[in-house]
Write a structure and sequence with these properties.
This protein is mainly α. Helices cover 74% and strands 0% of the residues. Helix 4 crosses helix 14 and helix 11 crosses helix 15.
Length: 518
């Protein structure tokens, strides 16, 4: 090959420079948010309830999207077809908004009135039980780690797919799908360092500012990527025709997604009502009117993000790309069919922006450890604001280290891992709904509900994911029970335990009822 030909075929490094610039902006935002830090633990954990409607909308949306929405949806659409949009996107648009209205606004008011920082504080006070919070903490951490993992796995797979062949000397590999690509461990290491930097600097405010910037970026990125890929493939009609020729079933729900599976998937978005990071994000709102923008625009934003990613995943089926892991589909399609390197860099930076919005989950875990473990053990008033911030940072560092280690093992599909995580949180949703609206719910009922979730979810997780993986199954099938997703049985067990045990035990005290229902 002549030097001219080699130069013409050499990969452009401009996209990496654009991504580097994006990461630098995040660091600058972290430093800027530190300048607004008031030095109190309340400001570090809730931004002193000062976030206005626009920032609240952008940051709230980012915390619900993450790698699951972009990398995961494209991967799942590549495997299961266009019906993935109906499985999660359409139902999430409706269910999330309903939960924000019915649960979020009430918990914001309660949290502000009683100065709660975490949902565990709310449950301990509502059910007059410190033990309930002690039970909930490890369960919430257990469920949250897979959510953080989806971000790390998604980042590693996306960048590996996007940089394939760029660094043949630095990162050689016998695997042609990874040859010359930035390895996932290096991507996760860089992403972790940047996230830790800006949330260490600014706490929740740092996460809010970063998420707002990230939301704008990945809203633009998804639409741009879809338009440019469609244009390169000869238009949306031609891209779809290629899929039709190779695998017509990818363009229909029937045959790939059963009716029971489809309907039970609609329970998964209930998880948003029990996410620790969403509770913490709700508390940042300046006032209850701040929620209005979320109620209006959240479903629209879901459409803007999910539709392009799912279409790209489906269109990839028609192109016959050498894909080892479906998690890399979005990165590969972006690299191959977005020609301009600067635009490609912007699109890839936007995708990484969605992946990195798992910062709020990490921040919430640090907050819970400090407020629900350290402070109760040492004693209220005996842990200074400075010490609380440092305890939070220490636990965040531990969670990131554990997640980094787990992310380096052969991962499952990001979408499927996210669904398992969400199924556990959805099982806890009846508890928070009852705590707000049902006077007769009791402490014993709450314990029974949480234990029912833990038992049911653990058994189904082992049956549907852990067992098959240990047996060497690379891609476990959907773990349906009587045609329904595990989330249906987890929510059913939780609800039955909550109602039956509550009705069979002594009602809560008049003091508690007066605090929450007067």
């Amino acid at each position: 090959m002549t030097p001219a030909a080699a130069a013409a075929t050499a990969p452009s490094y401009l996209p990496l420079y654009v991504i580097g610039l994006y990461l630098a902006v995040l660091i600058v935002l972290g430093v800027a948010s530190m300048r607004s830090f008031r030095g109190t633990s309340e400001d570090y954990f809730t931004a002193t309830h000062s976030v206005g409607p626009v920032l609240f909308l952008l940051s709230m949306f980012a915390t619900t999207m993450t790698a699951f929405a972009m990398v995961g949806s494209a991967a799942k659409a590549y495997e299961s077809g266009i019906g993935v949009y109906a499985l999660m996107a359409s139902s999430s648009g409706l269910v999330h908004t309903l939960v924000f209205f019915l649960v979020g606004m009430r918990l914001w008011a309660i949290g502000k009135r009683y100065r709660f920082v975490t949902q565990i504080q709310f449950f301990r006070d509502r059910f007059e039980s410190r033990a309930l919070g002690t039970l909930l903490f490890p369960i919430l951490v257990l469920l949250m780690i897979p959510y953080v993992l989806t971000g790390f796995i998604g980042a590693g797979a996306f960048v590996q797919g996007a940089t394939r062949g760029m660094f043949p000397d630095a990162f050689p590999s016998a695997d042609p799908t990874a040859a010359g690509a930035i390895p996932s461990w290096l991507t996760v290491l860089v992403v972790s360092a940047v996230v830790l930097l800006y949330i260490f600097q600014g706490g929740v405010r740092g996460a809010v500012w970063a998420n707002a910037f990230q939301t704008v970026l990945f809203l633009i990125a998804g639409v741009t990527a879809m338009a440019m890929i469609a244009n390169k493939l000869g238009g949306a009609e031609a891209a779809t025709a290629a899929v039709l020729a190779k695998s017509p079933s990818h363009l229909a729900r029937e045959g790939r997604i059963g009716h029971g599976q489809f309907l039970s998937y609609m329970l998964v978005p209930l998880s948003v009502g029990m996410f620790p990071h969403i509770f913490q994000a709700w508390l940042t709102a300046k006032n209850v009117r701040t929620f209005r923008t979320v109620l209006v625009f959240h479903p629209i934003f879901i459409l803007i993000v999910w539709m392009p990613c799912i279409l790209i995943g489906v269109w990839a089926v028609g192109q016959g790309l050498p894909i080892k892991s479906s998690n890399a589909v979005l990165g590969l399609m972006t690299t191959k069919y977005v020609a301009d390197p600067i635009v490609r860099g912007l699109v890839q930076a936007g995708t990484i922006a969605a992946i990195m919005s798992m910062d709020s989950q990490i921040m919430a875990l640090g907050t819970m450890f400090t407020e629900d473990v350290v402070v109760p053990l040492v004693g209220a008033g005996r842990v200074s604001d400075r010490a609380q911030v440092w305890w939070s940072r220490a636990f965040i560092l531990l969670i990131v280290a554990v997640s980094f280690f787990l992310s380096q093992h052969q991962p499952p599909n990001v979408f499927d891992l996210g669904v398992w995580c969400f199924s556990g949180f959805a099982g806890l949703f009846p508890l928070v709904l009852a705590a707000i609206y049902w006077k007769r719910v009791t402490k014993a009922g709450a314990f029974a509900s949480v234990l029912a979730v833990l038992a049911t979810w653990s058994v189904l997780l082992y049956r549907g994911l852990i067992g098959p993986v240990l047996s060497g199954v690379a891609h476990p099938e959907e773990p349906l029970v009587l045609g329904l997703m595990p989330v249906a049985w987890v929510v059913l067990a939780s609800s039955l335990a909550l109602v039956v045990v509550s009705l069979a035990t002594r009602p809560p005290s008049e003091r508690t009822l007066a605090r929450y229902f007067a």
